[in-house]
């Protein structure tokens, strides 16, 4: 429990936050939810049938969000993959949110990358263990500043793509998401009490692949913006 003015036993860490585009304000982050296999082609390339699966979610840590423009190649892995995703930031939340009210909760959108230690994730899958070791490591969620929904609306279609060193690797359209943004919010709110400051990474198109130090990742989502990240 966070008590204002409390005499903490140790100094609290800084509240993780994402800049808001064209503003000096910061968006404080509460939790980070990620939806898995939300584009049919990506589900297939990962060996799954998208027609047989309900949505599922895993988490990253709030301080995994990284707006520095650099991605430090992590330890304990030799197979780290990019996954471009639309970032959804919530200004309000609740339990059991109806689909037709879900977009009222959205503050804005950004472009993000769900960087994944694929080799460690594969081991976890084989052993039936959680994925956090492959997903929730330091700086594993590069992202752009957030663009408020009152500026761009709620993108439901438009190109999403990623280039690796200038070569197109991922391409899709937001309308290819199996679970749309309102459905994600509604479903999640049946599992968790969603809160202001929650972030949802909404899934990635097919074409994921490995990076090496020195690589440059550039990505784009129509209306939302562009991201460029160097692997260091």
From TrEMBL:
> Which keywords does this Swiss-Prot/TrEMBL entry list?
Hydrolase, Metal-binding
Where would I find the Fumarylacetoacetase-like C-terminal domain in this sequence?
32-232
Where, by residue number, does the polypeptide cross the bilayer?
Answer: none
What Pfam families would the database entry show? FAA_hydrolase (PF01557)
Please name the InterPro entries in this protein's record.
Answer: Fumarylacetoacetase-like_C, Fumarylacetoacetase_C_sf
GO MF terms listed in the record are: acetylpyruvate hydrolase activity; metal ion binding
Q: Which SUPFAM superfamilies match?
A: FAH (SSF56529)
Q: Mind telling me which PANTHER family this protein's record contains?
A: ACYLPYRUVASE, FLUTATHIONE S-TRANSFERASE
This chain belongs to the protein called Fumarylacetoacetate hydrolase
Q: What is the lineage of its organism?
A: Bacteria, Pseudomonadati, Pseudomonadota, Alphaproteobacteria, Hyphomicrobiales
């Amino acid at each position: 429990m966070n008590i204002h003015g409390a005499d903490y036993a140790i100094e609290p860490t800084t509240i993780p936050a994402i800049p808001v585009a064209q503003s000096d304000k910061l968006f404080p982050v509460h939790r980070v939810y990620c939806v898995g296999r939300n584009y049919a082609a990506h589900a297939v390339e990962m060996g799954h049938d998208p027609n047989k699966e309900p949505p599922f979610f895993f988490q990253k840590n709030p301080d995994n969000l990284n707006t520095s423009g650099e991605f430090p190649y992590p330890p304990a892995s030799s197979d780290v993959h990019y996954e471009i995703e639309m970032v959804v930031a919530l200004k309000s939340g609740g339990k059991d949110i109806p689909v037709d009210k879900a977009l009222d909760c959205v503050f804005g959108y950004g472009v993000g990358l769900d960087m994944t230690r694929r080799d460690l994730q594969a081991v976890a899958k084989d052993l039936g263990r959680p994925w956090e070791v492959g997903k929730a490591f330091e700086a594993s969620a590069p992202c752009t500043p957030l663009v408020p929904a009152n500026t761009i609306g709620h993108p439901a279609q438009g190109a999403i793509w990623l280039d690796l060193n200038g070569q197109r690797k991922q391409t899709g359209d937001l309308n290819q998401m199996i679970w749309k943004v309102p459905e994600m919010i509604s479903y999640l709110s049946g599992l968790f009490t969603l809160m202001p400051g929650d972030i949802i990474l909404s899934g990635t198109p097919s074409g994921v692949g490995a990076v090496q130090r020195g690589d440059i990742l550039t990505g784009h989502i129509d209306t939302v913006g562009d991201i460029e990240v160097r692997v260091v």
